[in-house]
Every structure is written in structure tokens, then in C-alpha cells.
Design goal:
mainly beta; 5% helix
Length: 321
């Protein structure tokens, strides 16, 4: 009987969309839901019986989520697929900075963002290889209830093959923890937050064309890219609420500073810069006799001066993505 504890997910960047490559890195993950669905095309012909007519094989579509803890090296692959390729510089021996600024151009004419090949081994005799995989949505969260920083990546892929599994080599660097995070709102450090969630929704759509296959032929945008943000606050006063009422757009910064890299002075770091945070909803209600908290929903808006809505900088020990 297969067991999830023996599963693994490997990945590697593709040069050409949909052309599979062997796994080069491996993601520590908690769960995944990537599946292939096969469209059932039902004939509308009248057959002289009351039963449904014959079925035909339609489009094969692949999608699902991967979720788990955030490790500072391999998470760069998911950021690359969700934001685009980073600008990388070496800070010191064995220490690298990767700046992920959301791209405005497409990776190619048939794929909006950098594609990957995923190998999902589910402890069966064959592993599931998904080629042309792109991160449509990427969400990060941490807080007093989720003390290890988490990610969820929504995947869209092109095609599936069953292959012999590879041998995983998992990242051993320390995860980012809740107590390593600092949040700055409108230039001031904020200590009223209990949970933080942020990310990107690329609004991608898998499309088929008349190319002689039953697979999707391209993954392109079907709407505007958005950057949703959710904050849980234990309010001391109405300072942030008044910014919501005035519909101010304020700068925000989220920074996770982890442990030392290779025993040196540089530390693993993930920094999120938002030039314009806009609060979309800010409910304040009494729900009992305890402390009054609010679940604030907002979004990062594109800033013409900065040329981005959200920028993520990752400092780690990986030389490139």
C-alpha cells in the first residue's frame, strides 16, 4: 500500500514550454492535489433509446495545489514561476541575493511565465511527471497560529507522463519562523498583527488549439494580475482604520530574517516590499466579551514610480534559478 510519507516532489526549469526535463531540486511539502481531468464529450445524436449517447475523449487538463513550509532555497523556484526570473547578485562567498520583480512580458508566445517540469512521486511503481507546469497563484502566510511560514502554490500544467522516480535530495536549511517576521505599515513598525497572508494571483488560463493533440497548447493571462493581502489585527486605536476610511494607499514591508547562512554573518532573508497597500475591507465588530480583532483584506497596487506592486527579495545560499 502506498504511503504519503514516502512521496516526493521534484522540479526543474524548462527551456521550452512543455518539453520535460529531469528533476534537479526537491520541495519539502505537506500536501498536493495536482490531478489530470479528461473531458467527456457526449454525442448529441438521437439513438432511439433513453440512455445517454456514447462518450468521446476530450481535453486533458491538469491543475492543483502544492502546500508546505517555506524553505529559503527551493522557494525561489516557485517565486521564479510566479513572478518571473530574478536579478541575482552575490553578496559574499556562498551568499546570493535574488530580486523577484513581477514581469510585464511573457516568457514566450505560448506561456506567460517560466514553466517547470514537476515530478510527483506518490509511492507507486511510477512517478507522475507534469510538464509545462506554471504557478498561477502563490500565497505565503505566517502568524501566532501558524508558527512555521507556509506557502500554497496553485499549479497549471500541460501534460502528464508516468516515469521512473528519481532519488530526492531534500533541502536541509532552516525554515522561516513566525518570530522572525517584522511588519512595517506606513513607515512604522506594527506590533498589532497576529496573522499575515500575502501573494500573487496571475489570472492564467490554460487554452487548447487545433494542434492535433488533446492537451492544452498554451497558458496565458485571462485578466489582470492581483496581489491580495490579508491581515489579522488586535487594534489599540483607530489609526489604521482611518486610513481605510480615507482610502489611503500606504507603503508596507514584510521581512523574515532567518538563521545564519553557512555559519557566517549573512542570514537567510525574505523581504516583501509594497509601495502601495490599499485596505479594501476593515470590519470592526463586537463578537463577544474578549479582545476585538479585525480581519483586514487589502491589495498591493501597482506604483508607477517603483514600477511594481510587490517585490520580493530572497537572500540564501543558492547561486541561481
Amino acid at each position: 500500500m502506498p504511503f504519503g510519507v514516502l512521496a516526493h516532489i521534484g522540479l526543474a526549469p524548462e527551456t521550452t514550454y512543455g518539453e520535460p526535463v529531469s528533476a534537479a531540486d526537491y520541495i519539502r511539502f505537506a500536501s498536493e492535489s495536482i490531478n489530470e481531468e479528461i473531458e467527456q464529450v457526449i454525442s448529441e445524436n438521437i439513438m432511439g433509446v433513453v440512455d445517454e449517447a456514447e462518450s468521446h475523449e476530450g481535453l486533458h487538463s491538469i491543475s492543483g495545489d502544492i502546500s508546505g513550509d517555506v524553505y529559503p532555497n527551493v522557494i525561489g523556484h516557485l517565486l521564479r514561476s510566479a513572478f518571473g526570473a530574478p536579478v541575482t547578485t552575490q553578496l559574499s562567498p556562498g551568499v546570493y541575493q535574488h530580486v523577484f520583480t513581477p514581469v510585464q512580458d511573457n516568457f514566450s508566445s505560448v506561456c506567460a511565465l517560466p514553466p517547470y517540469t514537476l515530478e510527483v512521486h506518490r509511492d507507486f511503481e511510477k512517478a507522475f511527471q507534469y510538464a509545462g507546469a506554471v504557478v498561477n497563484e502563490l500565497t505565503f502566510s505566517f502568524g501566532t497560529d501558524t508558527k512555521i511560514m507556509q506557502f500554497t502554490a496553485a499549479i497549471i500544467a500541460k501534460k502528464l507522463a508516468l516515469i521512473n522516480k528519481t532519488t530526492p535530495s531534500l533541502e536541509t536549511t532552516p525554515t522561516f519562523m513566525w518570530n522572525q517576521g517584522t511588519i512595517t505599515l506606513d513607515g512604522q513598525a506594527n506590533s498589532d498583527l497576529t496573522t499575515v497572508e500575502f501573494g500573487v494571483n496571475n489570472n492564467l488560463e490554460a487554452r487548447a488549439t487545433l494542434d492535433g493533440t488533446k492537451e492544452v497548447s498554451r497558458v496565458l493571462r485571462n485578466g489582470a494580475r492581483t496581489f491580495p493581502i490579508s491581515l489579522t489585527m488586535e487594534l489599540k486605536d483607530l489609526t489604521e482604520y482611518n486610513k481605510f476610511r480615507a482610502q489611503n494607499e500606504i507603503p508596507a514591508k514584510i521581512e523574515m530574517i532567518g538563521k545564519a547562512i553557512n555559519g557566517g554573518t549573512d542570514k537567510y532573508k525574505l523581504t516583501v516590499e509594497i509601495p502601495k497597500l490599499r485596505y479594501n475591507s476593515f470590519p470592526i465588530n463586537v463578537e463577544g466579551t474578549g479582545a476585538i480583532t479585525t480581519q483586514v483584506e487589502g491589495s498591493a497596487k501597482y506604483d508607477a514610480a517603483s514600477l511594481y506592486a510587490m517585490k520580493i527579495t530572497l537572500v540564501n545560499s543558492k547561486a541561481s534559478y
